[in-house]
Amino acid sequence: MQGQTKAFTQLAAKELRKTMTDAERRLWHRLRGEQLEVKFRRQHPFENYVLDFVCLEQRLVIEVDGSQHVGNHHDEKRTEKLNLAGFTVLRFWNNEVLNETDAVVQAIWNALNPSPPQPSP
Description:
Layout: H1 7-18, H2 22-31, E1 41-46, E2 49-55, E3 60-65, H3 73-84, E4 88-93, H4 94-99, H5 101-112
Parallel strand pairs: 3-4
Antiparallel strand pairs: 1-2, 2-3
């Protein structure tokens, strides 16, 4: 991932790590230290973006969105660009992370460990 970020984005990521939202802090508590058997990075710079959480090994991006993201077409373009770069993007609302943490973590686990296809009868 080196060489793919801009200096401004790297500085923004560093600052965002210091000012995480309550929802981001709660989710980070459940993702850090390879608790899901993979390494996640928080507030990781990628091109002109700062990804809330990313597992580079599995190419999985987790975004935690607040009300400012309602109807935000920028998020759709960002997701498309990340998909083109080979990432899968999961988005959760702040209130989901805060009120349904276990379900959010289960959804992330499922994305990391997809079920094998079942044989047809």
